[in-house]
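Notebook p. 47: complex prediction with NAP.
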Amino acid sequence: MDLGIKGKTAIVCAASKGLGRGCAEALAEAGVDLVINARSVGPLEETAREIAAQYGVKVTPVVADISTEEGRAAVLSAMPSPDILVNNAGGPPPGMWSDWEREDFIKALDANMLAPIAMMKAVLPAMMDKGWGRIVNITSQSVKSPIAVLGLSNSARAGLTGYVGGTSRQVAGSGVTINNMLPGLHATDRAVSLDRGVADAQGISMDEAKAQRAATIPAGRYGTREEFGAMCAFLCSEKAGYIVGQNILLDGGAVNATF
Ligand code: NAP
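Predicted complex, structure tokens below:
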């Protein structure tokens, strides 16, 4: 399928690894020039080189923490008016409801709610003037089905989801769509660190922890970044202009709900 976005431009946040990288690769495959960012320079530059070499698009790496104002300014100065924006950042640490203080919530809100909102506010006016834009936010299945140990994530992502629900309807008439992708378990570094938490808590091996978690998924396995990226590229495509304000689960059936 021709996604109809060859020659367009995109910012993909937090994209040196994992799901962000999957989105960047799929957009590059569709012919989109990219700005990608992450905090660690080595993996980011390597990812940028690999994607540019494989797909023949321009990939500009920007070392920046997207949860900070300076980080966002650096990313936006490399591409002030992208056609496409994919919002992403690392997820908050697990814990217990009784552990978290105001400062912990502020950090989670900064990374997983206020950073994507600030990025959207920065790029929306130019997208609306052009009459075309695509925004995808990477959130979590925890928006639909809370994961108790990820209370910081449950809270921050629910706030972002509410904002997108309203804002997507305010901008849709200008040809701009905003949607959220809700990952369930995917085989990334984040999944490995959560596997480690289960292994340590239960005194079992990493393989046992992974098998135990995979067994909770009807598909019987973790998702891949390639599968995730393909959905992202479709949502950012010319074909997806009528998909507005949706929350799309990619979870192998893990959330047990009819719709
Ligand atoms: P990952 O494999 O750990 O990759 C995270 C990427 O984001 C890395 O490139 C990392 O690079 C970058 N990053 C993290 N914090 C950043 C920041 N503040 N500013 C800029 N770049 C940042 O994680 P993932 O599995 O792809 O997860 C992506 C998001 O999806 C997270 O919010 C996660 O909680 C959520 N999620 C993941 C899963 C899953 O199973 N994988 C499930 C549900 C939700 P640097 O460290 O160099 O900055």
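Notes: Residues 85 and 135 are 5 Å apart (CA to CA). The helical segments are 18-29, 41-55, 69-78, 102-130, 151-171, 189-202, 206-214, 225-235.
Next step: compare against the earlier run before touching the bench.
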